[in-house]
Amino acid sequence: xxxxxxxxxxxxxxxxxxxxxxxxxxxxxxxxxxxxxxxxxxxxxxxxxxxxxxxxxxxxxxxxxxxxxxxxxxxxxxxxxxxxxxxxxxxxxxxxxxxxxxxxxxxxxxxxxxxxxxxxxx
Length: 122
Known about the structure:
40% of the residues lie in helices and 25% in strands. The protein is an alpha+beta fold.
């Protein structure tokens, strides 16, 4: 017959570890839920309306009097669907292009450029 003896020190350590794990999970959950708002506040360029110009060489963003040229090769990843294109210049931000913004032929052309020139396409 095996008897389990409850040691007060082990008992407190176990509860401490469980409590630390629960706190870590809660902090992670809160950070992930508020990530978008925090990034939006940090990057003031996203507060202003902007326009895209799309050519075979890449994407040009026009914000007020500023211009940013991004070749297709500069995007880390792209996600394609029948109605939307998401272009990720880094892991945390993306640009979205919807089919409603294009004629049907233009949307298909842009999708083919993205497939050809962006490294990681899903």
